[in-house]
Amino acid sequence: MVFTGLFVILIIVLGAPFLVKKVEEQLEVFLFVMGCLAVTITSQWSGHLIKEALVEPIKITMAVLVAGFVFMKLQKPFSSQVNRLVELLGTKLFVFLVVVALGIFASVITAIISAIILVAIISGLTLSRKNEILFVVISCFSIGLGAALTPIGEPLSTIVVAKLRDAPYQADFFFLLKHLWLYVLPGIFALGIVGAIVVPGQHGQQSTLTENEAESLHSVWSRTGKVYLFVMALVFLGQGFKPIIDAYIVKIPYQGLYWLNTVSAILDNATLAAAEIGPSMGLLQIKSALIALLLSGGMLIPGNIPNIISAGKLKITSTEWALVGVPLGLVLLGIYFVLMLAFN
Q1: What integer pLDDT is reported at residue 210 of this predicted model?
Q2: C-alpha to C-alpha distance for 120 and 19, rounded to whole angstroms
Q3: I need a labelling partner for 156 at 20 to 30 A (CA). Which of 106, 133, 235, 236 fits?
Q4: pLDDT at residue 170 in the model
């Protein structure tokens, strides 16, 4: 009965945000309720778990809050200088530097703030809408990769480090950086090169992307609260789904886990990480699952937080995103899979 209940919860968790608009809009509350339910039916409530759920979100939440306040103050002067920088550097070098910088620094300033900076950059540009969408999607792939290197980068990395903190991995702040940098950093630089090649330098004559709402005190505090609740929900979900991980996920070879996690294109990759990753998995399984989650998470808007923020603020449609994100993601998934087979 326990496994039946867990599989029902898993199906609801994976399907409801994609199918029900209200759930998508209140995802943090929904996942919190589902996480509590999963822990309840597996009888895993404890003081230690509650403490972990209260403490784990603090670091990433504080990073989001501080960086949000800083950028709110700098947003207007920053946006006004964008075109001057483009004229100074040239469009192609500018695109390369932005894609690479946002990817690398996302692990420090968080994927959320990196996405907000990207939105401000795009709002200040005067490229055509099509070219700006190319720029946004490629940058979000880079942000999604880079943010995974530290537990303050994004909720996915926060929950993975939390779940692997005990034996046998004893994961610390630098655990993901140590094991993923060789996959992530070349990918970020490659995306920078792709951006420099495919984003033309012509300025738009008609429509360009513009942020629909500037940063405010309300948006900073609201986003911070949502991040805290989201990570807390992931802690409960991860603990609740532990029996499924131990009984089923650990038996899937790393190649199978890699392609299984391409479902992250339509489902939030942090939620999938909470449901899948656990200390009973082998290191190669963990790396394979995470790389697939990070890459496929950029393919469609629901895949990760940078996509959701950028598309929402810039009013990019799902179709516009998919026309760029799906082919780019499939190419990256294919290349990384061949590399993993060759070197593992």
Answers
A1: 75
A2: 30
A3: 133
A4: 95
